[in-house]
Amino acid sequence: MPIKIPNNLPATNILESENIFVMYEDRAYTQDIRPLKVLLLNLMPTKITTETQFLRLLGNTPLQVEVDFMYTATYAPTHTSQEHLIKFYETFDKVQSRKYDGMIITGAPVEHLPFEQVAYWDELCQIMEWSKSHVYSTLHICWGAQAGLYYHYGIPKYDLPQKMFGVFPHKIDSANRDKLFRGFDDIFYVPHSRHTEIRHKDIEQIPELRILSESDISGIYAVGDVQGKQFFITGHSEYDPLTLKSEYDRDVSQGLPIQIPQNYFPNDDPAQSPIVLWRSAANLLFANWLNYYVYQETPFDLSRL
User: Fold this and answer.
1) Are residues 194 and 296 in the same domain?
2) Which of 111, 197, 238, 247 is catalytic?
């Protein structure tokens, strides 16, 4: 949340140069306050786990957030009970007349498929097109980020020689110090779990996009459009402490080739409890998105979107 200061306070320039968000008295007095409306398109098979991870982050701010849950009608989830879906979720036909301050499109375990071969691709394209006129700012996560970059900008994904798996150090692009990363340390950590990547050279060819953060090891982490209406996040800041362990144990039990996740188990020993390095950065990322790109920017009357 911003700090409210008197107009023309001498400390203003110093605070703003340090990326501290300040609000002048004049603006504070004219603000209207209402709950933020956020739509979560949950593409993960383990929907209850995923919704809990994102709600934990969305709920860790002073802002009041109302969340609607959506799943695709063109693919029937097999890991979530129909009772849960009926009680808590809606399909696109039920929400398409509404407008939202923010939207999150999750990842999905379909990286091995070309986008067009994903069962719900046509529906997802329809939703992403709808988001341009009905959502003020959209946060795309992991495969959702790759899908969004491909649909909106034609940017391809590329297969990796081995899975990008672990917790990796990242830095902020010094030329694009975006509000999304205000308050971040010079080096911060993010979990990654993916078999594909997007590449620097493709992003640079799109003038509407900016690379906001990347890693020397895991590559591009965050891309944003110049208006702050779309963000594409390739990692899993929302992951619980044991999520990577669960994925590792699953692949080992199935006899799949999988390396020990990097920077995760002490001494790379899966028998030990993982070290959480990303929790504070994750909370700050979602707090910044909600504050700077949703709460501070959307009109009080959503019908004006």
Assistant:
1) yes
2) 238
Is residue 6 predicted with pLDDT exceeding 60? Answer: no
Distance (Å, whole) CA 58 – CA 238: 10
> Does the pLDDT of residue 1 top 60, yes or no?
no
Distance CA 154, CA 52 (A): 32
Range of the domain at 15: 1-26
Distance, in Å, from the CA atom of 4 to the CA atom of 159, rounded to the nearest integer, reads 48
Give mean pLDDT, residues 158-183. Answer: 92
**Active-site residue flag, 238:** yes
**Residue 257: CATH number of its domain:** 3.40.50.880
Residues 46, 112 within the same domain: yes
* Residues 15 and 126 placed together within one structural domain of the fold: no
b/e 179-215 (16+ beta carbons within 10 angstroms → b): bbbbebeeebbbbbbbbbbbeeebbeeeeebbbbbbb
For residues 223 and 232, is the Cβ–Cβ distance under 8 A? yes
Name the domain count of the chain.
Answer: 2
Q: Which of 134, 152, 192, 236 is catalytic?
A: 236
125 is catalytic: no
Instruction: Assess whether 51 carries a catalytic annotation.
Output: no
Average pLDDT over residues 9-21: 59
132 and 249 fall within a common domain: yes
Which of 68, 67, 1 shows the shortest CA–CA distance to 33? 1
Query: Do 3 and 55 belong together in one domain?
Result: no
pTM of the model: 0.89
Given 51, 142, 192, 197, which residue is catalytic? 142
Judge if 225 and 269 occupy the same domain.
Answer: yes
Rounded to an integer, what distance in angstroms lies between the CA atom of residue 98 and that of residue 302? Answer: 9
